[in-house]
């Protein structure tokens, strides 16, 4: 029983234009311990040409 399921690859999509700008890895175990829900990060969106709030999604394009 190694590290299976501990890490999860998620995509970050712009909440405004819905374009998938980033792909990241998150540690599911840590996230669960924090008790947080969906990851939300402010990042640069090249489509909006400004910093927007990005939300995680498990749907990778
Ligand atoms: Zn955008």
UniProtKB/TrEMBL annotation:
Domain of life: Bacteria
Organism: Candidatus Woesebacteria bacterium GW2011_GWB1_39_12
Stored HAMAP family: Ribosomal_bL33 (MF_00294)
Name of the protein in its database record: Large ribosomal subunit protein bL33
Transmembrane stretches, start-end: none
Keyword Ribonucleoprotein: yes
InterPro entries: Ribosomal_bL33, Ribosomal_bL33_sf, Ribosomal_zn-bd
Alphabetized Pfam families for the sequence: Ribosomal_L33
Gene Ontology biological-process annotations: translation
Keyword annotations: Ribonucleoprotein, Ribosomal protein
GO MF terms held by the record: structural constituent of ribosome
Protein family: Belongs to the bacterial ribosomal protein bL33 family.
GO CC terms in record: cytoplasm; ribonucleoprotein complex; ribosome
């Amino acid at each position: 029983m190694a590290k299976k399921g501990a890490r999860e690859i998620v995509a970050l999509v712009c909440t405004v234009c819905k374009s998938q700008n980033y792909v990241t890895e998150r540690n599911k175990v840590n996230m669960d311990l924090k008790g947080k829900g969906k990851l939300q990060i402010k990042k640069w969106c090249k489509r909006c040409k400004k910093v927007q709030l990005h939300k995680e999604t498990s749907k990778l394009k």
